[in-house]
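Hey, I'm writing a tutorial for new members on how sequence and structure tokens pair up, and I'd like a real worked example in the thread rather than a made-up one. If someone can provide the structure for the chain below, I'll link this post from the tutorial.
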Amino acid sequence: MSRIAVAAAATLLACSPGDGGARGSPADSSAASAPAAASDSLATAGPGVEIWFTLSRTVSTPVGKSCVDRAIELRRGEKRTPIPLLYTQEKPQIVSDTTARAILYSNCIASDTYLVDLRSGRPTREKR
């Protein structure tokens, strides 16, 4: 083997993880165990509007059970209106031409029910 080839091999080994990546570093293991990001998916549709699941976050209960909360977004053709701070695990329900109902989830637990204005995207807590 030529001196150049030996020097190149030594340089590559010096720049790589000491174990050749066989055991994996903490960064490698967290990346491997992290769930893949959920893709956008159609939740439901009403007159002239679609409600899509968009962002996702993995959360867990105080006892360690994991689940995935999804944000929702209104879509009309090219126009997209994200619904602020409303993460859910259930499909929203169309209530009328202008309103949908969605259940807020926090740490895998269903919470308040919100009415979402399908024109503006504004969520309002539903009165019980």
